[in-house]
Design brief:
about 35% helix, Rossmann fold, about 210 residues, 8-stranded parallel beta sheet, 8 strands, alpha/beta
Amino acid sequence: MLIANVSPRTMAKTTNTAWLAHALREAEQEYEVEGFDADHSKQFWAWHKKGRFDFEVHLEASARFHTDVVLPEGKVSVVDCGHSENHPHITDSVLRVADLVILHMSPTRADWLRIAEPPDATPFKDILRRSAPLRADGKPPTTWVLLNRTVPNAASTAIYRRKLENDGYNVFTTVIPRSETFAQSMNFPVVGAKKSVFGELVTEIEKRGLML
């Protein structure tokens, strides 16, 4: 199975990818995880080295991801995909083979506009649609939005959840709060992911039948 973590720009995607991967490893099923860094920043890959992850992360920021990467059988492949605004060719390639797309978004006007009404880029809904003819089933990949950097009791979370749902997106019930633990974790070991909100996210993914 391939889980593609995507966003138009910086929306905590890499941080969430690492924590989600660890939560999958720590889940009751103890999923075997393999990571792929399809972002030219190489942050996911560098983090797995410095943080001593117990799974491999491979550098694959390429428009040929769909042909060059051999997905490991019996493992969950977790991909940190390059920003779709700057590297649409990478996003297009990853979407051709993704089983589940997680679109990361903070509940802010800026992030909403980057997804729905970018001034000089392709709306993400159109990026998903254009992948369909290139996929084996001829359909866009299953896509869910993960709201992150949320503030407790802030109206923005409900407002942007509603806007996303009205635009046809599925939105996870689980949200990732604004947290110094997550924000400052890069390049350090990831500890206790299962007991964090990312453990709740894994449970929601499972209950919704999104794990293949």
